[in-house]
Write a structure and sequence with these properties.
This protein is mainly alpha-helical and 278 residues long. The chain has 12 helices and 6 strands. Strand 1 and strand 2 form a beta hairpin.
């Protein structure tokens, strides 16, 4: 069981709600440098040797690679630039490093002047797994609700209690339905998603429900069926006219509707796939 310290129990800890961006960035930088020292970026970025100087890895010019792929010129090297990072910068760097980390498996020790290990065998999958664990342990301490996924994207964490529905397989053999739902989940959770992004995610789930509507009628009462689409059609989601109800807290309402529609979609798909809606 994780120990909770005095000021945390008392509620007076200055970081009770999570670490600041500056502290989170500094913590990430120190963990990254530890992994670098341990050889986790030697395959991609090379290493230093007392005899040969810098030995190139797969990426000969890391700063150029960052500029070309991330399209930013002020991220590398992190030990010099991290103090200037905003949240987007930090998450861009996390995603970039995830694409280039690999666990050192085998190598030779260069004893001259305690040069250290020269790695030549690596495992990218296990390296990414360890990097992701490290990053998510840090993001769990951050004031913002984010996590690094297996696909290498920093996304907003699901609301507490809804984690399992995001991890669950989409119960449909229809590739277009599964793709639409996956796209909606990704759009809703992306870092810094706008209200329009979230509204589109809700709209996409409503469209999936519309597509399923003929089969869903077998497991929904007529009142439930009507209410499902009344919400989407009359609250500024799918149509735009002067009869729309828009005087609500959009951020809270869209979050509520997204989770409601996502859970309903999973329920209906399971019913349909099991034959209960036939």
């Amino acid at each position: 069981m994780k120990h909770t310290y005095y000021s945390q129990r008392k509620g007076t800890n200055p970081n009770q709600g999570g670490l600041t961006l500056a502290d989170t960035t500094n913590l990430f930088l120190r963990r990254y440098l530890q992994m670098q020292d341990d050889g986790y970026f030697a395959q991609a970025f090379g290493f230093e040797c007392v005899d040969e100087g810098h030995v190139h890895g797969e990426v000969r010019d890391v700063e150029l690679e960052v500029l070309v792929t991330v399209r930013k010129s002020d991220l590398w090297p992190p030990d010099k630039m991290a103090s200037q990072y905003d949240e987007d910068d930090l998450f861009d760097l996390v995603e970039f490093l995830y694409q280039h980390v690999s666990e050192p498996i085998d190598g030779t020790y260069h004893s001259w002047n305690n040069c250290g290990m020269h790695w030549h065998t690596f495992n990218r999958t296990s390296g990414q797994a360890k990097f992701r664990t490290m990053v998510n342990e840090i993001l769990a301490l951050y004031a913002g609700p984010f996590e690094l996924t297996e696909q290498g994207e920093v996304l907003q964490k699901p609301e507490a209690g809804f984690e399992s529905i995001f991890a669950a397989d989409i119960p449909s053999k229809d590739a277009s339905v599964a793709s639409r739902i996956s796209s909606a989940m990704l759009q809703f959770r992306r870092h810094a998603s706008s209200l329009d992004d979230r509204r589109q995610a809700v709209r996409d789930l409503a469209d999936v429900l519309e597509y399923l509507r003929p089969k869903a009628k077998a497991v929904l009462s007529s009142a439930d069926d009507s209410d499902l689409f009344n919400i989407a059609n009359n609250f500024g989601i799918r149509h735009h006219n002067d009869k729309q109800k828009t005087t609500y807290d959009a951020a809270l309402w869209l979050s509520w509707m997204f989770y409601f529609y996502l859970a309903t979609t999973h329920y209906l798909l399971r019913k349909i796939e099991s034959g209960d809606a036939e």
